[in-house]
Amino acid sequence: MSCNQPSTQSNQESPETDISVIVPALNEQGNVSRLYERLTEALSKLNVKYEVIFVDDGSTDNTSSELDDIAKQYSNVKVIHLVRNFGQTAAFSAGIDHAKGQILVTLDADLQNDPKDIASLLNKLQSGFDVVSGWRKQRNDPFWTRVLPSWCANKIISFISGISLHDYGCSLKAYRRDTLAGVKLYGEMHRFIPIYAAWMGARIAEVPVTHHKRSMGSSKYGLSRSVKVILDLLTIKFLFDYGTKPSYVFGTLGLTAIALSFVSLAWALVLKYAFQTSLIKTPLPLLAVLLFTVGVQLVLMGLLAEVMVRTYHEAQGKRIYVIKDTRNI
Which pLDDT band holds residue 258 (cuts at 50, 70, 90)? Predict the structure, then answer.
């Protein structure tokens, strides 16, 4: 598949779909039409047959009707309307489940991602890589509320995962379809697909991409999202390292707690017999044991709940989204 030659009629008649572009949209009235125009302009220059899948993630403005109008005009546009707002990860998951392309490209609907950069991602993908992630090297976002928290989160994610990327939060990514086989997405985990893929042996690359300032609508991101991202990362790290041997992490924490309880008891005895301090007068050993025990219980309950949620969904084949209606599917 060449990315440098103009499209031909024979290629358009091919039954194969080369590329599926997946775009989640939440209250992006006015942006989705302009985005489709830019996608058409960029993708028509490539020698590929493509489809565009818009996932309406419970929009409350006119985004839904605007997407339906686009789908009526163009048969290669698919629209999935979710019954409510399930979040960006669920929207991406719905798009991936209904995609037919051998290569999947994801991007945001807010026009901050530039469709012209898709060609760069595809060229890099053809160099032998399995996942190519965009890097917003020059971001047009507020520094204190968006850029700095994102930079910190990226550093933490790279440290925990062992996969070095500059920009996990950039939605503009390209994947070979088989790379996503068996990947289940929850929470805010769509940004961690490169980590999943790398852990399974896939080759990961990163290319700088253009980042435009938002011109319409409002951002759906905030500082609280960085906290959720870190918690999701800890979850997938736990599932990957200890999913089949949870006793290692539970046992380690349990033994640590027991050891600390003996240390606390020993120090309390030292205070009593060496310094004549009554155990009743010092609440520190009890407080330390209580706080540590509660902390361990909360962490373990959270991890156990994550495993139970995945078992609930995957064992019964349940999805993390509910479709209200579709177009051209």
Answer: confident
Contact 3, 47 (CB under 8 A): yes
pLDDT recorded at residue 10: 36
- Give yes or no for a contact between 125 and 176, defined as CB atoms under 8 angstroms apart: yes
Q: What is the DSSP string of 58-81?
A: S-SSSHHHHHHHHHHH-TTEEEEE
Residue with tokens 């590329």: 19
d(CA 298, CA 25): 35
Query: Are the CB atoms for 114 and 209 separated by under 8 Å?
Result: yes
Q: Which two tokens stand for residue 231?
A: 């918690």
Residue 280's pLDDT is what? 77
Q: From the centroid of its chain, how far is CA 164? A: 16
Helices and strands, number each (H, E), in the chain: 10, 8
Better-predicted residue by pLDDT, 269 or 218: 269
Alpha helix (H) residue ranges in the chain: 9-12, 31-43, 63-73, 88-97, 118-125, 148-161, 193-199, 223-242, 246-274, 284-315
Amino acid at 21: V
Length of the chain: 329
Handedness of CA 158, 112, 85, 185 (dihedral sign): negative
Are the C-beta atoms of residues 38 and 115 closer than 8 Å to each other? yes
Give me the half-sphere count of Cα atoms (radius 13 Å) on the Cβ side of residue 79: 26
Q: Is the pTM of this model over 0.85?
A: no
Q: Is the pLDDT of residue 136 over 50?
A: yes
Asked whether the beta carbons of 73 and 40 are under 8 A apart, the reply is: no
pLDDT tens digit sequence for 170-181? 999 999 999 887
